Amino acid sequence: MDKLQAILLGSPSLQGSHQAYRDLDVELRSQAEAVTKQLPETARALITAHPQEILEWLSPAQHTISYAAVLDVLVRPETTIDRAWLQNKVEAFLEGFDWIHIRFIGDALTRLLSRISVMGLFKPQRTIELLASTILRVDPTASVFTSSHLVLANHALTLGIVDPALPVLDRDITAYPPTTSVRGGRPLSDPSLSATIYISTFTGLTEPVKASMILDYGATLSQIYISRKDWQKAKASLEQVITHPSKDKGVVKAMTSAYRRWILVSLLEGGKSPLLPSYTPSTAKSHYVSQVPYNALANTFEASDPAQLQTELKTHEATYESDGTLALVQQVLQAYQKWQVINLRLSYLRISISRVREETFSGETGQRLPSTEAVDALLREMIEAGMLKARFELDEHGNETYLAFEEDTNTLSETEFAQEIARRHKAISDLTAQYKVVNERLSANKEYAKYVYREQKRQNDEGNQPIGFDASVEDEDLMSGILKAS
């Protein structure tokens, strides 16, 4: 026990200068080796036999590496340790670990997050909270995709507990982890190191990221946002899937499924047939043309032909049901008349309720609403939901009710304007920093360096048009971190 205690209490404390970070790297890496690869089986047996005594020696903040190693031994599905005690220790660790030291034993943290999500160690709400807060402690931007992002999203969707996960799920993914160290000689313990550098399979802060994981994450996010009727975010998540570059230039099943939902969500979000982003792979564009039941529905929706809309539904209802999209199609039909009402503002400043009834049709029946009272109820519902900016007015005789459209403007106060300027300035600064990191990573990539050299030579010697980097290196490789940096 004394020998084990000495190993676990080894706690490097160097900090400060750049050289000190290099020395700290050596000590932290040595400590991680001592409590993982070099830890004898007898020591592991002692940890299992005396968990409470051993963890009493350690502090999550001061002994992050040792604490993580001990929990890696203890937190297993087959454990018989007192549940309440283990909960307290895991919670204390996840809320108190040193965010620098954890980079040297990231694989233990990744396993811990995965295990608590499947073991039911905590109540569902608390599990989601811990997963999200831990991801943010490792990377406050949560913008570098990790396997833990997918664990969180899947768990939140399965449990139906989304709100605690949104601080992570709402963040834009701007980078994918490399498969090797790309620090360029900088110490791993340097606090100024970008998350795009220290989050990698090399540090263990993520499992290897495959294209299927990226597609699964986008699809899972879309399901979460669809359940919340957040059509804008659902559409953005689905676009990440349908535009994902494929290594063999093919289109996988997940992309096709996402496209079908993207069409429907786009109708709900914008009331018109969407255009594919310009960066959609050409093979995918060609494939999506074949999705006739959805493309036809979108075109009919935008053409304002209620009879044809009913025909499309009857013709393809079995397809929608087998695709698992029938419920979403029904929501599209429910929204059809609402978008007709919204589009009336393009022709009218003010329109009588009776005229609204004459000019709009229910997407569910293909008929006008049965009465002006039903139209009135629909309009009030839309106004209360914030979908329609309008007000009710009586004519000069007080006999007929009109719908008066309000100007769609957002006037900012001086304070709000200053806040918006500050927000955009920060966004530009963040983007500049991300561009610098990506440029450094590409510059260190042999394949990219060869591409740049070939392009320069071609332009100087042959005068040919550039063919584009994707002609020699697969886009999916770059996005998923498959290419190894030098």
Automatic annotation (TrEMBL):
A GO BP entry: ubiquitin-dependent protein catabolic process
COP9 signalosome complex subunit 3 N-terminal helical repeats domain residues: 49-282
UniProt keyword annotation of Nucleotide-binding present: no
Keywords: Cytoplasm
InterPro entries, alphabetized: COP9_N (IPR055089), CSN3 (IPR050756)
Entry GO terms, CC: COP9 signalosome
PANTHER family listed in its UniProt record: 26S PROTEASOME NON-ATPASE REGULATORY SUBUNIT 3/COP9 SIGNALOSOME COMPLEX SUBUNIT 3 (PTHR10758), COP9 SIGNALOSOME COMPLEX SUBUNIT 3 (PTHR10758:SF1)
Protein name listed in UniProt: COP9 signalosome complex subunit 3 N-terminal helical repeats domain-containing protein
